[in-house]
Fold these 2 entries.
Entry 1:
Amino acid sequence: MKALVYLLRTTAKNRILNLRKKPALLILYLFIIAVITIMIVTSGSSGSQPGNPKNFSDVRILYMVTAGIGFLFLYSFVTTGLSTGSTLFSMADVGLLFVAPVSSRKILIYGLIKQMATTFLSALFILYQVKTIKSSFGLGMGAIFNIFIIYAILIFFCQLLSIGIYIFSNGDQKRKELVKTVLYGLFVVTALGIYFQYLQHGGTIFEAVLNLMSYKPFQFLPVTGWTVMFICATVEGNAGLLILSLLLFFGSSIIIISLFTSGEADYYEDVLTSTEVVYNKLQDAKNGRKTVNIRKIKVKEKDTGFQGGQGASAIYYKHFLEKKRTSRLLFLDTYTVLAAGGSGILCYFMKAESSVYLVLGILVYVQFFFTILGRLSDELTKPYIYLIPEKSIKKIVAASMTTIIKPCFDAVIIFIVVCIVSKTSPLLNLFLALAYASSGIIFVSYTLLCQRIFGGQPNKLISAMLGISLFMLVMAPGIGASITAIYLLPKSLIFLGTLPFTFCCIVLSVFIFVVCGDLLDKADYTGK
């Protein structure tokens, strides 16, 4: 065990000392620490009015958000456990410790400690919300610290659960079906709980959801309910429920860990595949490649081949077929549903016409990260696009087409929902949808521009950091023009406020595609 303690201590020390060789990363860490410190200090010196609870929002909204995060993590980690599982180790641990003459249980403890540290560091972003939580719900720093703790516990427990499910169900279809049944059963029980609260108290569905959050039997629901119980006990000052929530998490973790070490089979072989999958995902992310999860699928004979196209257009048909195989509804996917639902909920709560502009801003921000990982970047890492005897601009447009169509499709679905929920003008939502679609086009052209300027940069994180100023330069004209238009236009024509943004995005996109369209003629294929 002394060797493992030494390894943990030395690894932590070397990571800190290694920051001297990476000044950009050191500046980033210092910036994060400074922002968190400022948020905590400013929240302590301003904001709350504890003497007037009417100024605060219903604390059950916080419970509802907590439950939503709990269900999201539970679903994500359980489905991961049914496929590849999660892991507590890195490939370096596999090569160094798995072959060492050290007890497997001690190595497991090492992995748990290491993962705990990583989990708590990843939960730091909760502290960014200190001021919001304090001003919205009137909670003190002690309660906010408890929210940070339970968030870290939730992530750590879900990772353990994912590994346990993988060990329990790997290679056994009946056990996988059992896990799925239990998972979906939790969702059904929650839906029934909302329905019964609606029957008992009346009101709206939203009020029924809030009533369920403070309903004690719901708080005994595994994982999600335990998390809500912890937050509720923190707010109410109920030490008994607080301890009970921790005991439920702790006891379940002991059961899962005992599964790791029980029986003749050890956990080495079970977590090895998961460790390799995680390692490959990290390498793909560093090199800017999209990660493809290998899974068995049943390919129908009629779906083979590109089903049309020749020359450059064959790239589009290839992408279209790949999307068809990943989703029967083509461009309608989980993101579309979540974005439309989230936008509708935000508009419902804010109940103001200005909320639609906030929705647009959030959606455009999120869309950026999806678009820069689009088909074009992936296609440029393969040799086929360079071998097609067509003009470079045609091949680039074909490789970008599905990425351009996707936000156009999403815009229609999302802003139909926004229009219905916010009860704003259909014309206003039409121009908002056009703005969202045009931002997708400008992001594709921005990806092309980065490829032209930065070339085959091995680490895409560096490219992203260097490209922030370039991104602002590309987006600034459209944003500035729309802000000016909204300020100058009369109220009857305010729906035209986003039109300058749309126009600037389209013009700039066309310009970038024309200027950088010869990218394939100027670049060398590197496989990166």
Entry 2:
Amino acid sequence: MPNDYKVLYRKYRPTTFDEIVGQKYSIEMLKNAVKNDKISHAYIFTGPRGTGKTSTAKIFAKTINCENPKDGIPCGKCNSCINSNNNADIIEIDAASNNGIDSIRELINNVKIAPSYSKYKIYIIDEVHELSNSAFNALLLTLEEPPSHIVFILATTNIEKVPITILSRCQRYDFKKLSNEELITHLKKIAELEKIDISDDAIEEIAYLAEGGCRDALSILNQLYTSNKKIDLDTVLNNYGSISMIQIKNIVDAYLNNQFKEIKDIFDKIEKTSIDYKVFLKKLIDVLFLKAIETKNNNQEAKYLKIKDTIFELNDVINKININVDPFLLIFLILIKGTSENTDAINKIPIQENIEVSKSTEEIIKEPIIEESIPQEEIEQPDKLDRQENQDYKQYIDKLKKVRINNCFAKADKTQLIQNKKSWDQFNEKINGTHQLKPMIMDSIVVLASNEINIVTNTQESIVEMFNQNLEEIEQEYENSIQHPIKFIACTTEEWEKLKKEYIKKLKEKYVYQIMEEPIYSKQIEKEGSNETIEDVFTIFEKNKIEIQ
């Protein structure tokens, strides 16, 4: 027998405009368009996931095909309304799985055919940003001069990826995240209809975790409902790796009152749980933000600045964290850096063994706490610290970067690029998630290659800097993994776009790149009077003809 069970977000999917939650402005505009008989040929609905874009598109399609709409609302009685779910004139396309030029060509050919029995033939294209460039170009021609019986409704969670040429031909409606209050009201209504035994604070926590998405909120409620007779706050916290706001407020209060011991006790308890550090960080930043506003309003400038700086440091943890480090250790160190009580106790904090701290981590947790709390040999080997902090080494990397980019341009090869990209992907897969090099390579992309050099890009400048400081280790690990030696150099995505434009320009001008010799970095050169440097001199000149002062 077929399974008639429906998950909550499907069971309570809106079927009328009045059932759409939290999008009052957009709904009123669409209803007025129907009421005034001013239907555009193309619309685009944009906003976060689970905010009602596709549901609204279906209801709007039903409304504009209704034979007797009243005040912008479908009558629900005509043939078009009754058969709206199986209407051959309402075509839904998932661009994520039909993003090629062939799918759009088929659409364009069918556009010319008149509706079977409705006023309009309506195309709902979900996740439209997934279309390829060629597919967008083909769609553009139809959007430019569509037949009068055609209406396009495009939906996307990523409006930035939709070409401006498409956007300029559509009426745009922005769907906002639902507020916690809107989600709480909606969840309470559904819990009552489904006779779900759930506490108010559990509903509030679900609304918080959903981050403004109605579908996400219902999915969380559904999962908890199917496996628990009664849902309380602890049920939600334990199932979703969350932490109560009471605990977060206790941490913030201890932080603002310089109570080191209280912070330490709370983090000791957290260590034994399975809390998601991203949820923890978000809540911590939310509460600190409210405290920052409060201190600003009360003219407590010193306390406000302290909170503001901490918020920025905590926000950077997500982007700069080294996955070998316990994230709660970083958060803990950031907070106790802002306290002044019992600094001697900080030195006695037990630190996990085998923790490796990258340069980005050192930037997050600034000295002197790291020096006091983590043994020097566990942070980095001395030669790596020299590289990162030595100005001469940074200048050497800058020179090496220019030379390697130049030499890669000189011998760039498209076939080699394809091959090297595959090798890079294989290398990335082989590197374990806990490997110290993983954060530098996992989101880096090979964009140009020769038989000797790979140029890689990354969106984050800090990752690029770390990559170039660890070239030897990356090259050695790559050779061991792929069994083929290659040199690397990294630059930011923004920097690469400029380099690429310059490269294309020079090629058009018939400029010929000449191979340059790579600079050599030697620590011995820095140490004036070292025996190795003098011995190098003796290999060039006769020893008895040199006077050493």
